[in-house]
């Protein structure tokens, strides 16, 4: 099954040229999955959606398209070849600035403490001599992905105030790790002295917090939190949106939204799998919830 889905991922670019953006009688519901985590794990996490949604939406099949990076999903949404995806706030801002009518943000997650945000965190190896943000002066910093909110946009915007200098002057060099999971693995390997990833900031660092990339890696058994130390945490970032293709039939949008809102209680395991940790549930959002991130992304483009 995973082999079939992996082949489907390879055809994502071809879909943009061959499939209509405004299908009135949708037979296939297409889910875009962001890069940044092992592909087989991403497919496994969303398998419950392929099992449940055909009956809910009245479609013949649900297909998963795990892109190699964030931009693969962004371009699929802009091209109308994907129907639903879960984005970071910066990824949504990129779409909004290019075509504000391409997708609609309908829901976002609520943390276990009731907040609707998360944090960028900078981590380093616990066995290194780097224990504080100041210790990173003249060191190598890794970012997750150019379109990641926590893995790049927010650190690039907020770090200068905390380090007292532009990023490119304080650190010896910066680079990208190829997604959140891979970035942390590269920090552990020593490719970067520290890296930025995402976490709820709720609960304890020693557990990988309640949700986020660190927690997902711990739950999968590929990370021991004793191997890391936290150097920095950003201000609260708005949780990324669940978006749907704007041109989708209104009845299907309603069915999908109702299904997602009920998911935390109807299938807690599926909800936890696709979100990557513990959350309270979903809440409705609209574009205005992301105004600050859209402004930050626009400012960065202009800089």
UniProtKB/TrEMBL annotation:
CDD domains: PBP2_PhnD_like. Gene3D superfamilies: Periplasmic binding protein-like II (3.40.190.10). The keyword Signal applies. Residues 1-23 form the signal peptide. Coiled coil: none annotated. Transmembrane segments: none annotated. Belongs to the phosphate/phosphite/phosphonate binding protein family. This is Phosphonate transport system substrate-binding protein.
């Amino acid at each position: 099954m995973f082999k079939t889905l992996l082949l489907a991922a390879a055809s994502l670019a071809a879909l943009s040229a061959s499939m209509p953006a405004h299908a009135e009688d949708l037979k296939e519901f297409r889910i875009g999955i962001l890069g940044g985590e092992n592909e087989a794990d991403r497919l496994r996490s969303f398998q419950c959606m392929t099992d449940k949604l055909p009956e809910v939406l009245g479609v013949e099949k649900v297909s998963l398209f795990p892109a190699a990076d964030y931009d693969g999903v962004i371009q699929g949404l802009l091209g109308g070849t994907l129907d639903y995806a879960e984005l970071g706030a910066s990824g949504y801002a990129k779409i909004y600035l290019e075509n504000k009518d391409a997708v609609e943000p309908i829901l976002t997650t609520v943390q276990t403490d009731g907040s609707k945000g998360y944090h960028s965190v900078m981590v380093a190896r616990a066995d290194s001599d780097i224990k504080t943000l100041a210790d990173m002066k003249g060191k190598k910093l890794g970012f997750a992905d150019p379109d990641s909110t926590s893995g790049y946009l927010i650190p690039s915007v907020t770090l200068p105030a905390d380090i007292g200098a532009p990023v490119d002057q304080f650190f010896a060099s910066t680079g990208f790790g190829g997604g959140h999971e891979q970035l942390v693995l590269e920090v552990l390997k020593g490719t970067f002295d520290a890296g930025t990833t995402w976490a709820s900031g709720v609960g304890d660092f020693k557990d990988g917090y309640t949700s986020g990339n660190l927690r997902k890696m711990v739950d999968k058994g590929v990370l021991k939190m004793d191997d890391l130390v936290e150097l920095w945490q950003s201000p609260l970032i708005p949780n990324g949106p669940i978006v749907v293709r704007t041109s989708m039939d209104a009845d299907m949008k309603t069915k999908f939204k109702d299904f997602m809102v009920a998911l935390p209680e109807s299938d807690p395991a599926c909800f936890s799998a696709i979100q990557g940790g513990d959350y309270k549930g979903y809440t409705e959002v609209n574009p205005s919830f992301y105004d600050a991130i859209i402004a930050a992304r626009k400012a960065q483009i202009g800089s």
